[in-house]
Concanavalin A-like lectin/glucanase
Amino acid sequence: MLLLPLLFILATLTRADETDCDPLNQTCPADAALGTAHTWWFNSTLDSTLWNMTTGTPEYTSEGANFSNRSVNGSTLLQSNFYIFFGVMEAHVKMAAGPGAISSVILQSDDLDEIDWEWVGYNTSAVQSDFFGKGNTTTSDRGGIHAVAHADSQFHNYTSYWDRERLEWWIDGRLVRTVHYSEPLTLYGRNYPQTPCRVKVSVWPAGIPSESLGNIEWAGGLVDRDDLPFTMAVLQRIRVQDFHTGREYQYTDRSGSYESIKVVSGNSTAKAEINKTPKKTLAQKWADLPTAAHVGVYCAAAAVAAFVLYCIRQRRQGRLERALAESPRSPVQSTEMDTYKKQWRQSEWGRRGYQNVEQ
Ligand SMILES: *[C@@H]1O[C@H](CO)[C@@H](O)[C@H](O)[C@H]1NC(C)=O
Ligand SMILES: *[C@@H]1O[C@H](CO)[C@@H](O)[C@H](O)[C@H]1NC(C)=O
Ligand SMILES: *[C@@H]1O[C@H](CO)[C@@H](O)[C@H](O)[C@H]1NC(C)=O
Ligand SMILES: *[C@@H]1O[C@H](CO)[C@@H](O)[C@H](O)[C@H]1NC(C)=O
Ligand SMILES: *[C@@H]1O[C@H](CO)[C@@H](O)[C@H](O)[C@H]1NC(C)=O
Ligand SMILES: *[C@@H]1O[C@H](CO)[C@@H](O)[C@H](O)[C@H]1NC(C)=O
Ligand SMILES: *[C@@H]1O[C@H](CO)[C@@H](O)[C@H](O)[C@H]1NC(C)=O
Ligand SMILES: *[C@@H]1O[C@H](CO)[C@@H](O)[C@H](O)[C@H]1NC(C)=O
Ligand SMILES: *[C@@H]1O[C@H](CO)[C@@H](O)[C@H](O)[C@H]1NC(C)=O
Ligand SMILES: *[C@@H]1O[C@H](CO)[C@@H](O)[C@H](O)[C@H]1NC(C)=O
């Protein structure tokens, strides 16, 4: 493992996304907990209850969210609205290639504890690991650099494991780095990440003229304007697991220590959101049905139409009451409709739709 002397610059740049309220300095609202485990795929629109697209607009493709930007200074930042208090974050991404572009997937707390995966655009064969405690960026001895093949064109599994005792970075099921709570690098725990963190994913340019020469050098040179859009990172999916199952996390003092964090029990709003029945439009429900069901619905519709016509005719003949009495088989009970319902019931969404119909 190589230690990169210039990594502290990245930390300085990361500071740019300041948190709104520093719990070491003021009384802040509690952090909403994830309180469970879930995998998010980023191939369609975000659930904006759980995720905040703070800067930029991703392009959703079948393989994931494409974070690209046509502006030289353009950046992209996606943040989770939920926090985890120890846990696992597993990201499947392709880094942004090209001089000047930095991609990152990090866990970050309100008092700036941080656990990082970072990719520097000029080297598509490496990923950097790093961590910070309480926003302390005075040293540059904490970064690691790890080889990874074709990080810009292949998805890899970048997993951070985080508990009270240790931090681990895994690439494709291989443990590449471990940091223990109590070791010199963490100042024997003082600078060990230990407060509730949210997930942040970003792509931003470090190689722009307004940056210092050091930054530009570290980023591998200036962003090439002729190559716009210069950034292109794809976020396929993220699995996040919270090791606590409560509703929210409160800082009970200004120490920033894990012992000061109170886990408020209850079901998190994130959990409720995850377990909520997604609302589907009629068109989506229709598209989800197998062809046979479509035929079934047409047949049922035809049966309904026939019944309506029959009723109209009967009414015209002044015999509607008798007709209904003579016809115990209502169109909804037709064979076609039964087939349709059965098939619909067999699919998960259909089951919910069916229940709605029945209510
Ligand atoms: C607390 O906040 C005040 C006002 O923003 C600032 O001047 C001070 O430096 C902060 N203290 C710490 C310890 O961060
Ligand atoms: C997203 O986050 C930004 C920055 O924290 C905040 O100003 C904005 O209100 C958030 N948007 C939503 C929809 O929550
Ligand atoms: C997104 O990916 C998931 C998992 O592969 C898949 O089930 C889902 O159909 C995809 N959605 C879209 C809109 O491509
Ligand atoms: C991402 O978006 C950029 C800009 O629109 C486009 O050139 C590129 O092909 C997209 N990448 C993927 C993988 O779709
Ligand atoms: C990029 O940002 C810097 C300062 O933030 C500004 O001076 C410069 O004009 C911007 N460039 C473009 C192309 O927007
Ligand atoms: C490009 O970046 C700028 C500045 O960060 C942002 O305002 C804009 O929304 C971004 N555009 C896209 C398409 O992400
Ligand atoms: C920040 O880290 C440096 C080097 O590890 C250490 O000397 C310093 O005491 C730390 N500062 C705080 C406030 O913990
Ligand atoms: C990229 O990083 C890997 C792993 O540290 C290293 O072996 C390789 O030489 C680097 N390539 C460049 C272009 O710096
Ligand atoms: C990703 O890596 C982690 C750590 O090795 C592992 O637990 C997880 O199962 C992997 N995910 C997939 C989809 O293989
Ligand atoms: C949390 O949700 C479960 C299952 O929905 C329910 O049984 C339980 O009562 C809820 N707990 C609280 C504190 O609301």
Remarks:
- Residues 291-316 form the longest helix (26 residues).
- Residues 3-275 form a domain with the Jelly Rolls fold (CATH 2.60.120.200).
